[in-house]
Amino acid sequence: MTELAIVAQDVSRVYASGSGEISAIQDVTFEIESGQFVALRGRSGSGKTTLLNCLGGLDNPTRGKIWIYGDDISGLDETERTHWRRESIGFVFQQMGLMPSFSAYENLELMARLGGVPRRERKERILKNLEQVDLKDYYAHRPYEMSGGQQQRIAIARALVTSPRLILADEPTSELDSETTHMILAVLQSIVREEGVTILLSSHDPIVDEYADRIIHLRDGQIAESPEESRPAPQLAGMI
Ligand code: ADP
Ligand code: MG
To answer: Best substitution site from 11, 13, 14, 15 to test ligand 1's pocket, by max atoms within 8 Å of Cβ?
Structure first.
């Protein structure tokens, strides 16, 4: 039987907003099998970031339950969740969040330290992870000495350094041009194939469909069966 990386059951997240409430995701239920590259697609505001934050323990759902590789993370308190997150999940964000005054190597080392990687294993792992994104020669470079695509590859290597079984990537390519986007998606796909990790990547860009094993559509905070209908351009609408 295939192992389940993610089980989300009736997950909702309501934000307090002024006098009212905003329901960012409602009753989201799905499962993701281990070792898959899954795209979470939806327009801006559809709830992608909210869902990823709940799955990765950065946020707590208002209702519902989440199991990550069998761990019921809904039951963890704040401190337990922070420990669990640092050791179990790799995050990649749109804004890569690299420490600007740290070299590529030091950025990975910081994450290794936070994630409890034993000191004697760190160097070997860091160099292996930099190799995986083809940037081993850049270990001493600081973020400003690299292109956007290279920085995002460093951020991916950093997400790998604790050997997480699940990587959550929130719009990691939306600041990049299309050629660089293809390269980043290919790197992520090869990591899924070679390491057997599970990646859930959010995007509003249809390019990701070419790389993902499966696509989950989010619309107005709910799982949708199919992508949103693309509307014909106004000048064509009258002709159809
Ligand atoms: P996406 O990542 O798909 O753009 P988000 O998860 O960021 O979507 O947002 C989903 C909805 O929740 C939006 O309507 C957004 O305005 C709202 N939202 C997100 N974060 C907050 C917050 N911290 N406080 C209030 N509303 C929020
Ligand atoms: Mg978002």
So the answer is: 15
Give tens-digit pLDDT for 181-203: 999 999 999 999 999 999 999 99
The structure tokens listed for 78 are 């704040």
Which of 122, 104, 102, 100 is closest to 112 using CA atoms? 122
Residue in 13, 49, 170, 171 to alter for ligand 1 test, most ligand atoms within 8 A of Cβ: 49
pLDDT tens for 100-113 read 999 999 999 999 99
How far, in Å, from the CA of 113 to the mean position of ligand 2? 28
**How far is the C-alpha of 148 from the C-alpha of 113, rounded, in Å?**
25
Consecutive H or E run containing 185: helix 178-195
| pTM of the predicted structure, to 2 decimals | 0.92
